[in-house]
Amino acid sequence: MSNASRSPSDIFNNEDSNTTANPHFDAVLAARLSRRNVLLGSASAAATTVLGSAALTGCATAGGAGNGASTLSAPLRSMGFAAVGKSLADKVVVPAGYNVQVIYALGDPLRATTPAFKNDGTDTDWESRAGDHHDGMEYFGLDAQGKPALNATTRALLAINHEATTDEKLSSFFIHANGGASTLPRPAAEVDKELAIHGLSVVEVSAQNGQWSFNAGSAFNRRVTTMTDVLIHGPARGSEHLVTKFSADATRARGTLNNCGTGKTPWGTFVSGEENWYGYFFRDAKDDERRGKKDKQVAALNRYGRKAGAASRHGWESAGSDDRFVRWNNGALGASASADYRNEMNTFGYVVEMDAYDSRQAVRKRTGLGRFAHESVSFAKPVAGQPVVAYMGDDARNEYMYKFVSAAKWDAADANPANRLATGDKYLDKGTLYVASFKDNGTGEWIELSMNNPIIAANPDFEFKSDADVAIFTRLAADAVSATKMDRPEWGGINPRNGEFYMTLTNNSNRTVDGDAGLDAANPRYYSDMKGSKESKGNVHGHIIRVAQANPADTSFKWDIYVFGAESDADKSRINLSNLTDANDLSSPDGLVFSEATGLCWIQTDDGAYTDKSNCMMLAAIPGQVGDGGKKTLAYKRTDGSEKRVDTFVGKAPTEDTLKRFLVGPKDCEITGLCETPDGKAMFINIQHPGETTKMADIGDASKYTSQWPANAGYGAGKRPRSATIVITKADGGVIGS
Ligand code: FEO
Ligand code: CA
Ligand code: CA
Ligand code: CA
Questions:
Q1: By C-alpha distance, which of 76, 75, 89 is closest to 663?
Q2: Average of pLDDT values for 509-533?
Q3: Is the CB of 375 under 6 A from ligand 1?
Q4: Which of 171, 472, 616, 649 has its CA 20 to 30 A from that of 543?
Q5: Mean pLDDT of 414-423
Q6: Atom of ligand 1 lying closest to residue 260 CA
Q7: Contact 68, 701 (CB under 8 A)
Q8: For the chain, what percent of residues have pLDDT higher than 90?
């Protein structure tokens, strides 16, 4: 979803519910441990467990335990393409020598019997069509017989997130003939279409003579929508806070929503993060009162962006008395939790796991990975006998970075298991969640979020009764341990050359010099940027942080900032700290995927700040490693006029040879999702929401659509813009980026 302050959808991607003051961690720890001492006698042993060893055991380097260097078939040491320029054209721009094909766009039929897409707002059968706002995506190879095959390069399944839809005044206007209803109540027929365009797709694709296409008649094709039955797994399964009229025993739920980033597990399944789900729920103004002061849900609902009186993004709850509409009203309206949907919102906000190869198996919500605005899930390369480790972020202003460490130790035989989701149960249903605390000396700690942590067990601000509560109310647990507030964590990736973990921090309009969200070493920039006559302040262009661990399961780490987003002509001493040039300047990094084939780091943008100069883009990088740059001190004026100095750690500046713009998308889109054939010769990416700033009132007048892509690239009927998957190949058949 877009970052720009351009359409109503932005409201839902720019949440800011973290009002905690988060005093210095040591002070909190001291205070809470001393109280715990009084209560329990001694806390010293527990404190050691929680914090891990304070001493760093040395930083990860190539060849160290847990790194993925050996998976690289042919790491590229240089990139052979000429950087493309910034572009405002309504097309996909790639370097000379590369081809782009559109293969799967909003509305495309998933069954041989589904009518062709007319793209005029009259189409039906949305459960059997491509959903909207293609986002994260993963590749699952198939052999000629249609069996899973890790190395397959010409036939595969793509599992794709359909995050959201282009909307204005409630309605998803491109899929309704006249743009739809902009007032409440919403017509049921419109809402039914909107319920179906969210969720996931699985589609079969194949190549013949280098030309890729998607197979509309494949038996593998699948849609998961907001209405699909799913299973609750992990510590929150059966929790009182997940009881709904739909599932009184809290073991089942319906659908997945606002699926943003993705990941691929070491056992070959697809995982998807539910991001801005809270915005789809309605809560009337009296709901706090109805629930009563003692209901801790009131605090949780506020912390998760749903204050009493909150309107919903599309008004789905207004479309009638049927359960499929009523469930979006999160009020405590019935006699008990099993008589209404007061807990429905608690069934969203998880990582969901799907077996792309087996459409008969229900999607599983892996609650052990915590509940927040999930983006991607990055699995460290698994090592036999060691836990499985997954890194994640919570994308909202001033939210946190997380890590999950499995209880089960990795068995290499699980890389190709007979039952993939049962293997997911083994590694993802039991484990420990951690949240990141970044220190100003270039180190950091992963702090345990569980009832084993005395700070959480004795938290005075919010009562945690069990690890189920920690899984459901994760943000409140992270608040209690004073995690570091970040500049909107988006995608993560593991550098296969050395095992280091990268995470994009896309931007933060609420970063301030001092105060609750004051600058810190890991989020060290505050500046002003102009877009025409509009000024933005904070960390307008974002940055990419990276973390090195000797062993991914360790609680200590080292970090630095790989690159700071900036406009190339910005002040190099305060803003353009990575010395970006016209060939590689970028704003609002979002997608980030390391190629397993080449080791290249692909960076995608979802920007609204630099879009006066360029549409959103994708760049390729050969980054170095944590510590290859140096310390930098930035000086600011506090609100009281005194000086605030912030020490940070800036990675070695990229050059035009090590960071290059590879692609620019059509107008009003973001570039997101990336997967590739194992040989690195075909790369699939998603173009999300072209034409997003079109006015609903202009539906029917194609000349006023701000984009007509992909129709203007020769793909499909009609002129309404469509989110779509494209495939990029090299004309000479070579490896992408070489
Ligand atoms: Fe869906 Fe945070 O982007
Ligand atoms: Ca600017
Ligand atoms: Ca994103
Ligand atoms: Ca974004």
A1: 89
A2: 96
A3: yes
A4: 472
A5: 97
A6: 1
A7: no
A8: 89
Ligand 4: distance of its center to the CA of 509 in Å? 13
Q: What mean pLDDT value characterizes the chain?
A: 92
pLDDT value of position 26: 38
Give the model's confidence band at 405: pLDDT under 50 very low, under 70 low, under 90 confident, else very high: very high
Say if ligand 1 is within 6 A of residue 288 CB.
no
Question: Residue 520 gets which letter from DSSP?
Answer: B
Q: How far is the CA of 660 from the centre of ligand 4 (A)?
A: 21
- Whose CA is closest to 328, among 290, 374, 272, 277? 277
**Cα angle at 607 between 510 and 737, to 5 degrees?**
130
Cα 314 to averaged position of ligand 2 atoms, centre (Å) = 32
Angle of helix 44-51 relative to helix 25-40, nearest 10 degrees, comes to 140
**pLDDT, tens digit, for every residue of 374-399?**
999 999 999 999 999 999 999 999 99
Alpha-carbon distance of 244 to 263, in angstroms, equals 29
- Find out whether 379 and 264 touch, Cβ atoms under 8 Å: yes
Q: Which ligand has the minimum distance to the alpha carbon of residue 133?
A: 1
Closest ligand to residue 589's CA: 4
Cα 260 to ligand 1 centre (Å): 6
- Which one, of 346, 353, 344, 330, lies nearest residue 233 by Cα? 353
Tokens of 202: 């699985």
Cβ(394) – ligand 1 distance below 6 Å = no
User: Ligand 1 pocket, 1 CB below 6 A?
Assistant: yes
Gap between the Cα atoms of 143 and 157, Å rounded: 11
Instruction: Kindly state the average pLDDT of the residues 159-178.
Output: 97
Report whether residue 490 contacts ligand 1, using a CB cutoff of 6 Å: yes
Q: Which residues sit opposite 232 in a β-bridge?
A: 365
Task: Find out whether the beta carbon of 275 lies less than 6 Å from any atom of ligand 1.
Answer: yes
Contact 274, 352 (CB under 8 A): yes
Per DSSP (E only), the strands in 422-510 are 431-438, 443-449, 486-487, 489-494, 501-505
Query: Over the stretch 522-568, which tens digit does the pLDDT of each residue have?
Result: 999 999 999 999 999 999 999 999 999 999 999 999 999 999 999 99
Full DSSP string of 30-54:
HHHHHHHHHHHS--HHHHHHHH--S
Q: Where are the domains of the chain?
A: 8-163+198-277+348-464+485-671+681-689+701-730
Nearest-angstrom CA–CA distance, 273 and 589: 18
Residue 54, pLDDT > 80, answer no
Three-state SS for 174? helix
Find all residues with CB under 8 Å of 587, minimum gap 6, and list them: 507, 540, 541, 542, 565, 566, 567, 605, 607, 609, 610
pLDDT of residue 13: 54
What is the distance between the alpha carbons of residues 416 and 156, in angstroms, rounded to a whole number? Answer: 16
Task: Classify 390 as helix, strand or coil.
Answer: strand
Instruction: Give the closest residue (by CA) to ligand 1 atom 3.
Output: 1
Terminal Cα-to-Cα distance of the chain (whole angstroms): 31
Q: Is the CB of 260 under 6 A from ligand 1?
A: yes
Tell me the one-letter amino acid at 645.
R
* CA nearest to 158, candidates 172, 144, 143, 139: 139
CB 163 near ligand 1, within 6 Å: yes
In degrees rounded to 5, what are phi and psi of residue 229? Answer: -65, 135
To the question of pTM greater than 0.90 for the whole model, the response is yes
Helix (H) / strand (E) element for 683: namely strand 682-688
Centroid of ligand 1 to alpha carbon of 490 (angstroms):
6
Confidence of residue 20 (pLDDT cuts 50, 70, 90): confident
Question: What's the CA gap between 560 and 620, in Å, rounded?
Answer: 19
pLDDT tens, residue by residue, 271-325 = 999 999 999 999 999 999 999 978 899 999 999 999 999 999 999 999 999 999 9
- In 3D space, the residue among 653, 634, 622 whose CA is nearest the CA of residue 737 turns out to be 622
